[in-house]
Design a protein that fits this description.
Layout: H1 2-31, H2 40-51, H3 73-97, H4 105-108, E1 112-115, E2 121-125, H5 140-150, H6 162-173, H7 184-192, H8 200-216, H9 219-229, H10 239-247, H11 256-265, H12 269-272, H13 279-298, H14 304-313, H15 331-345, H16 351-356, E3 359-363, H17 367-384, E4 396-403, E5 410-414, H18 440-450, E6 468-470, E7 475-476, E8 496-497, E9 507-509, H19 510-515, H20 519-529, H21 531-540, H22 564-575, E10 579-580, E11 586-591, E12 594-595, E13 605-606, H23 610-626, E14 640-645, E15 651-657, E16 662-671, E17 674-678, H24 694-706
Parallel strand pairs: 1-3
Antiparallel strand pairs: 1-2, 3-11, 4-5, 4-16, 6-9, 7-8, 10-13, 11-12, 14-15, 15-16, 16-17
Helix pairs in contact: 5-11, 5-13, 7-8, 7-9, 11-13, 17-24, 18-20, 18-21, 18-23
Pfam families: Transgly (PF00912), Transpeptidase (PF00905)
Protein name: Penicillin-binding protein
GO cellular component, one term: outer membrane-bounded periplasmic space
């Protein structure tokens, strides 16, 4: 009972006691340090901790006004270190992960190079005018022109030059001349691996790749890539193309002054390409050229004396240039001819593959004879035509071709006034111009070979140059069955064949009819031989089937339209005693250094028995000796040939040959804006234009030059 009464009192007393102890304990705890080494400052921070600590004291506590928003030095340093560290890590990661990409496909494009028969460069073409060359072919002075102008520290820098970039920026900001802030390595990378966009990302990538390129490639390799990839204007990519476009020489022949201009042209190619004609462009180019030479002196690659000599020689003005002038004179026609031949003999050579370039096409064209043919045309035109005072002389066209009878090599062509004058159709390789009486020797050859049906129902009889036919004007023509040939245009319904004159020749020999170009005997002879036999002989001589006219009386006196090249080839067969060597223009084609098959020279084949071919030649000698081609006697050596004129005077021809050379010349009128043959009446002040006139004069002038030094 008493124990029971004490328990509540103990609890009550204990409660007060515990509460007292807690109170004392809390007070003691507030006065007791937190642990060893704990300072009073830490004890004072405790209330702030209860309010929550801040990782970045910004805006700054305990500050008022603007000072609250100004970061402390420690904060600025921390931000800088953080930024520097992140940037370094990012650049390091980018450098480690970036790879040198494959070259841009466009930088792999080259042009095609065409060569004369002697191996010299005839022309280049392609969608990109570039020929990659080893840096060893670039003269040392020219290399230093570019290094002085673009990157004097090229051989010592790692591929980038931060100081150079800043220096260029400050120089331009002060109003100085334009300077490149990129190293040669950077420009090589931009040209070859990247694009030309002006973005920070592209520039950063350029810097990273340039650093890797600088470590992976030798300086000479980089310089070579740079010089081959620069754009110089005038459609020239690379220094080799630039040397030819601006100065007409291979890069090996450039001097330091010319190299200084090209180093300047890289800076503003669209402007400096006109330094030949535009005063503003020339003035700026001259100033930049002078600056490059001064830089050469400054870096010790030119002496002041050498610099003075170049200054005394004057600014190296580039040669004249206009868009499309890369194929001057006859060059365009020669390139067209070679391209067509190459594509016809190798199906892998397409317009697309040619546009990508890399082909080296070796031609049969003779430089001297091509020039001689162009001179002959120019001289005769100047002497005989007066387009300024005779309107009929303005649209006169000339086409010509010269072929080696033994091999079929096309040695020269004259295709027209040239691409630079807007004349793109090759008059030497065109069809559509009737050959007139130059077709008669083919009819004679067919008659000598196949004989002729002189009487209906009888077997074909032998024909010789002495065989006689009626040469009178207006006679009626019979076919092999003895029937008169009809003509819907004649009031009688029958064909009455006419000559150029109304002279009554009576029965004359085929030789005489050839010499005087009398039509009626050869029309009747053709009917007697038969159209199939004449066509067979024409094709055997190399005339293409699609150029031969349909059967008619006019077929035998030249309504067919073979090209000048094919006519020269056909007469070459007579010159070679019946051996036909098909005309060809390409001897070899290589692509990226590898020779392509299919360009072996065509082997000569027997087209006519030698006796027949020589008989024709003997008759054609008489044409020059005492016939319509007497102007060709001025050649001064034995030759054979035939004049040709169409009935309506739409064309005039002369095709002639010696043993060494066969050449055809055609004259016609055609307005380029309205491609249709017009009459030659009145041309050169002549009432009638015959093949024995202007075409024979051109032939004789050319052959005189082309055969110089060759034996009779």
């Amino acid at each position: 009972m008493s124990g029971h009464r004490r328990r509540p009192s103990q609890q009550s007393h204990g409660g007060r006691l515990v509460e007292g102890v807690r109170t004392i304990g809390n007070r003691a705890a507030r006065n007791r340090p937190f642990g060893p080494g704990t300072s009073g400052r830490a004890r004072r921070a405790a209330p702030e901790q209860r309010q929550g600590r801040r990782w970045i004291d910004y805006p700054r506590r305990g500050r008022t006004g603007p000072r609250r928003w100004l970061p402390s030095v420690r904060q600025l340093l921390a931000v800088f270190l953080l930024f520097f560290g992140c940037t370094t890590a990012a650049v390091g990661y980018a450098y480690a992960t970036v790879t040198i990409p494959d070259p841009n496909p466009s930088t792999l494009l080259q042009n095609n190079v065409y060569y004369w028969s002697d191996g010299k460069v005839l022309a280049t073409d392609g969608s990109v005018n570039r020929q990659n060359i080893p840096v060893s072919q670039v003269p040392a002075d020219v290399r230093w022109d570019f290094i002085a102008a673009e990157n004097a520290s090229f051989y010592t820098d790692p591929g980038i030059d931060p100081q150079g970039i800043l220096r260029a920026v400050f120089h331009m900001a002060e109003g100085g001349s334009v300077q490149s802030g990129s190293t040669i390595t950077q420009q090589f990378v931009k040209n070859t691996y990247l694009d030309q966009s002006q973005t920070v990302a592209r520039k950063l990538k350029e810097l990273l790749i340039s650093t890797k390129i600088g470590a992976a490639m030798g300086k000479q390799q980089i310089l070579q890539g740079y010089l081959n990839s620069c754009f110089f204007g005038r459609q020239a990519n690379g220094i080799q193309a630039a040397a030819r476009m601006y100065y007409g020489v291979p890069v090996q022949k450039l001097n330091a002054s010319q190299g200084a201009f090209l180093a300047a042209a890289v800076n503003e190619p669209s402007l400096f390409q006109h330094a030949d004609s535009d005063p503003t462009a020339k003035a700026k180019a001259k100033a930049r050229w002078s600056w490059v030479l001064d830089r050469m002196v400054k870096i010790g690659k030119l002496t002041p004396g050498q610099r003075a000599r170049y200054a005394a020689a004057g600014f190296p003005t580039p040669r004249k240039w206009t868009l499309g002038s890369g194929l001057p004179g006859q060059t365009g026609y020669l390139v067209q001819l070679a391209r067509s031949y190459a594509q016809a003999h190798d199906r892998s050579i397409t317009d697309g593959s040619l546009s990508r370039g890399g082909y080296q096409i070796h031609t049969t064209f003779d430089r001297k004879r091509t020039a001689a043919l162009a001179r002959a045309v120019a001289k005769v035109r100047a002497q005989r035509l007066d387009p300024a005072h005779r309107s009929v002389d303005r649209d006169v066209q000339v086409g010509a071709s010269s072929v080696d009878p033994r091999t079929g090599r096309i040695l020269a062509v004259y295709g027209g006034s040239g691409f630079g004058h807007g004349h793109y159709s090759d008059n030497a390789d065109t069809t559509g111009v009737p050959v007139g009486s130059t077709f008669k020797p083919i009819v004679l050859a067919a008659a000598l070979q196949h004989r002729a049906v002189l009487k209906p129902g009888e077997p074909p009889a032998p024909i010789t140059p002495a065989s006689k036919f009626n040469g009178d004007d207006g006679i009626k023509i019979k076919d092999q069955q003895g029937n008169y040939v009809t003509d819907d245009k004649d009031p009688t319904g029958l064909l009455h064949q006419h000559n150029d004159t109304r002279r009554r020749w009576g029965y004359i020999s085929l030789r005489k009819a050839m010499e005087q170009s009398v039509n009626t005997p050869y029309v009747q002879l053709g009917e007697d031989v038969g159209h199939p036999n004449v066509v067979s002989t024409a094709q055997a001589l190399g005339l293409r089937p699609d150029s031969l006219a349909a059967p008619s009386a006019g077929f035998y006196i030249g309504t067919s339209t073979p090209s000048a090249i094919r006519m020269a080839g056909a007469y070459s067969t007579f010159a070679a005693s019946g051996m036909r060597a098909t005309p060809y223009s390409v001897t070899k084609v290589t692509h990226n250094g590898s020779a392509l098959p299919g360009f072996t020279a065509p082997a000569p084949v027997r087209a006519l028995p030698s006796a027949i071919a020589d008989n024709v030649t003997d008759v054609l000698r008489g044409v020059i000796a005492k016939g319509t081609g007497t102007k060709a006697q001025a050649l001064g050596r034995t030759a054979a040939g035939k004049t040709g004129t169409t009935d309506d005077y739409h064309s005039a021809w002369f095709v002639g040959y010696t043993r060494q050379l066969a050449t055809s010349v055609v004259l016609f009128r055609e307005d380029p804006a309205h491609p249709q043959l017009q009459s030659l009446v009145g041309v050169g002040g002549l009432q009638k234009v015959f093949g024995g006139d202007i075409p024979t004069e051109i032939w004789t002038r050319y052959m005189t030059d082309a055969l110089t030094g060759l034996p009779e």
